[in-house]
Amino acid sequence: MSKILLITSSPRGAESLSTRFATEIANGIRMQLGGSLTVRDLVANPVPHITSAYIKGRVMAPDVRTAEESKAVERAMELVDELRAADVIVLGSGMMNFGPSSQLKAWIDNITWPGITFSYEAGVPHGLLTGKKVYLVTAAGGVFSEGVYAPFDFQTNYLLHMLGFIGLTDVELIRIEGTVQGPEAAQAALAKTDATVKSLLATMA
Predict the structure, then answer these.
(1) How far apart are CA 201 and CA 32, in angstroms?
(2) Helices H, strands E: what count in the chain?
(3) How many Cβ atoms sit within 10 Å of the Cβ of residue 25?
(4) Residues 6 or more apart whose Cβ sits within 8 Å of residue 41
(5) pLDDT single digits (tens) 64-110
């Protein structure tokens, strides 16, 4: 029995391919392995961007925090607790201006927490959220996995770095790309991703 956490972050709503395939993976894993599914939609329920209340409050003792600081820290801890409880994390991200959406960036800023999700040992960062499987689903209109646009993929590379920084190093990447290069390219991209997802889920049966 697995505890699955699905995180979606695209502002495209029902048209989002990252949300579509991430949801398909999460539901498929639950069907194959059983367990529970928690969904965090960062667009329907956006995480506030961090403020000084969070930055100051997270290093203060609970009994000396202001009400605003306590609220900011408790909200961030709720996100961290979701990650801690999960055995499997499925994260969907659609590229916005070469990077992840601001909604996803806000979530990352809240959960990247010294002493909670990472620490420094002998001056070296050490992730604390270990022993979890992550399926990262990224979508982009162009092709960023190779070719001339590869250096501009500030979405996938950033997400892989930040996940690894907090200890989430067992990551399987599923890319959806090239969907704005004409109807045939879009159809081929969707067919490729669909086949990848089906193959992934078949290995769990």
Answers:
(1) 8
(2) 6, 7
(3) 23
(4) 8
(5) 999 999 999 999 999 999 999 999 999 999 999 999 999 999 999 99
Cα dihedral across residues 143, 146, 150, 153: positive or negative: positive
Asked if residue 168 lies in contact with residue 156, where contact means CB atoms within 8 angstroms, the answer is: no
Please give the DSSP secondary-structure letter assigned to residue 178: -
Residues 6+ apart with CB under 8 A from 96: 11, 102
Q: Which domains does the chain have, with CATH numbers?
A: 2-202 (3.40.50.360)
Residue 126 contacts residue 68 (beta carbons within 8 Å): no
Q: Are 77 and 69 in contact (CB under 8 A)?
A: no
pTM, 2 dp: 0.94
Residue with tokens 């078949």: 202
